[in-house]
Amino acid sequence: AQSVTQLDSHVSVSEGTPVLLRCNYSSSYSPSLFWYVQHPNKGLQLLLKYTSAATLVKGINGFEAEFKKSETSFHLTKPSAHMSDAAEYFCVVSVGNQGGKLIFGQGTELSVKP
Amino acid sequence: DTGVSQNPRHKITKRGQNVTFRCDPISEHNRLYWYRQTLGQGPEFLTYFQNEAQLEKSRLLSDRFSAERPKGSFSTLEIQRTEQGDSAMYLCASSFRGLVDEQFFGPGTRLTVL
Q1: What residues of A are in contact with residue B42 (Cβ under 8 Å)?
Q2: Which of B55, B105, B6, B103 is nearest to A98 (CA)?
Q3: Chain B within 8 Å of A98 (Cβ-Cβ)?
């Protein structure tokens, strides 16, 4: 069965410093993996997706993630945090053989200090 | 605006009452999904449609829950005899069936059961 585990429920960084949000996945199939962001009182927005092409995936707002099959990881990074990055981030796996429903991790809340 | 829309955005009801939510997907999308998100958790899959056919229902979806997508366009989610445990954000997403189902989410309907 497919699942994702986000290793940190809360991450706090200072503005201008790197961001690392960690995610491990479990999948019986070659997975499709996503990172979504949820700002307060706003809908979920897709940051980036991995679909078995390049293992390093670039997304919006300077975020990127690297798919590492040997480590079953899909960590999200950004070189320099901005105040507007403060939000909830979800690592997600698609159950592609079951209609594409999404399995979400528990979420990581990112705080950015000035 | 051509995104996914949901109505109402907020609903407060008393225990035992019935409620109905509506989701209007992106017009060319043939798949529509419902998820539920409780405080501090990631969204959980409830059900999905491909066109008008409901293809899967989660075990989370008790007999009090019913969803329809009568003409393959908008969808409704009805909860009968609401309970306090039904309080949550109900999210709708849509996608176009393709190689990878990238789902676009609406803003959600926040249900509070008193």
Answers
A1: 90, 92, 104-107
A2: B55
A3: yes
